[in-house]
Every structure is written in C-alpha cells, then in structure tokens.
Amino acid sequence: MNRAARRKRAVGRWCKAMVFVAPALICYIIFAIIPILNTVELSFYEWDGAAPIMEFVGLENYKAIFQNEIFWKALGHNIFWILFTIFVPTVFGVVLAVMLSQKFVRGRLLFRVVFYMPSIVSMVAVSVVWNWILNPEFGILNRVLKFIGLDFLAFNWLGDEKTVMWALLIAGSWVHYGFCMVITMAALSGIDTCYVEVARLEGANPVQTFFYVTLPLLKNTFTLLVLNSLIGSFKVFEIVYIMTKGGPYYSSGTGRPSKTVNLAWDRLLRWYFPP
C-alpha cells in the first residue's frame, strides 16, 4: 500500500471518529468554553448583571480585587478548604473501607449504607441539617455537651471566628466520606490475595502488609479520590452561603457573591423552607 492510500485511510478513520466525538465536543464548547471566554471578557467591564449598558474599565476590576483584603482572606480560605477536603475524606474513607472489609465486623452492610447516605444528599439539605446540629440554642451538639456536663464547650459554633471555618469544613467534607469508602472497598476487593499471602509467608505482620503491600496497590485509586475531592472542593458555594453567608466578619467566606446572587438564593431558600 502506497503512502497516499495510507494517508487516505487514516483520514477516513479520523473522520469516522469525529462523527462520534463531535456531539460531545460541540456541547463542551457551547456550555463550557464559551461561558469561560465570556466571563473573561466581562471582567474588563463594569456591569451589575442586569443593566443593558456595560462600561469598559480595562484592568480596573483586577486592580480593585487584588487590593481588597476580603479577596485575600477568601483566597486563603479556599486554599485551606481544598487541602482539608482532599486529605481528610481520603484518609477517613480508606480507614472506613479497611475496617468494614474485615469479616469479623458485624453489620457491615448497615454501616456501609449509613456512611454512604450523605453522598447522595444535596448540599442544600446538608447545610440545613448541619445548621440544626450546630444551632447554639436547640442544636443537638450543644444539648449533648450540656447533658454530659461540658457546658463550657457549648457555644455558637457558626458565630465565632475561631470555630466557624472548622464547622464548615466538617460539614462540607462529611459528604465525601462515603464515596471514598465505597471506591476504596471496591479497589480492596480487586487486589489479588496472593500478594498478601506472600507478605505473610515472609513474616510481615498485618500493619506492615497494609503499608507495604496494600497501599502501593491502591495508588491509582488514591489518584481518583484526590481528583474527585479536588473537583468537589470547588463546589462549596451552597454550604457556605446557607450556613454563614461568609460570616462572621468574612471569617468563613470563600468568595463574595453579587447582590443578584444573594437575592436569587434568598428567594430559593424561602421557596424550599418557607417561614
């Protein structure tokens, strides 16, 4: 077969492949690439999101945001949130998976369902539930603390600058534990038992077997969990806005929504949870 024929055949295969790729690619361009480019364009204008006229201001918006203390505070919160939600759910999910994979644990199926349930609940519902749990007046956490005699620990968790971020981190990462657990359990079940048996024949104890045999075999699983947690860490607007709206004194803010966004969310919450 000559070079022209091979090239023609390759082009034909490429065209056939593009027939299947084109629909997804077109949707990706329309719903992802174009909005991103449009957002970048809007960053050079002064616009409130509703007015018919936009005023071109160049780099003034970037200059203003880099000089804003709230922006740097929110950026620090975002970085801390990303690191926390990557590390803690992954470690906690692996620990749960290892524990619930042991045959001597009773009620393993029940525990799996209980730990996985938060993963299928919307962030709005999670925010409302944790608001009730951490409520300073009737929240279950403060009631339990008072019941066991730890009254000095019962206070407004979402109203104190020192504790509000930790409360949000616990609530936000809570929904990822079940997913990390299920994925890790699936990976553990796929490990060939011969590796573990060889390690035991060589004299390795269970701890050594886990750290030197099992964990290295879960490397690809950890990559998946980290990427999933990283993606999820950028979707924290609902829980922060519903629980604290960035307060108190911007100590939990991960961004500063516009007045239009505030109004839309207030109306949505009132529709879901009427007074």
Q: How would you briefly describe this protein structure?
A:
The protein has 275 residues and is mostly helical.
Task: Give your account of this protein's structure.
The protein has a two-stranded antiparallel sheet. It contains 13 helices and 2 strands. The protein folds into 2 domains: 3-62, no CATH class; 70-272, Orthogonal Bundle (MetI-like fold). The protein has helices at residues 3-42, 60-66, 69-100, 108-116, 123-133, 140-147, 164-174, 177-189, 193-201, 206-217, 219-233, 237-243, 259-272, and strands spanning 45-46, 55-56. The protein is mainly α.
Class per helix and strand makeup: mainly alpha
CATH superfamily of the largest domain: MetI-like
CA-CA gap between termini:
77 Å
How many H/I helical runs?
Answer: 13
In the CATH scheme, the class of the largest domain would be Mainly Alpha
Describe the global form: flat
Rg calc: 25 Å
CATH architecture annotation of the largest domain: Orthogonal Bundle
- The sequence of SSEs as H and E is HEEHHHHHHHHHHHH
Number of domains: 2
Q: Which strand order spans the largest sheet, edge to edge or round the barrel? A: 1-2
Quote the CATH topology of the largest domain. MetI-like fold
Main β sheet profile: 2 strands, antiparallel
Strand content: under 5%
What is the β-strand count? 2
How much helicity do the residues have? 55-70%
Q: Which stretches are low in confidence, meaning pLDDT under 50 for 5 or more residues running?
A: none
Mean pLDDT: 80
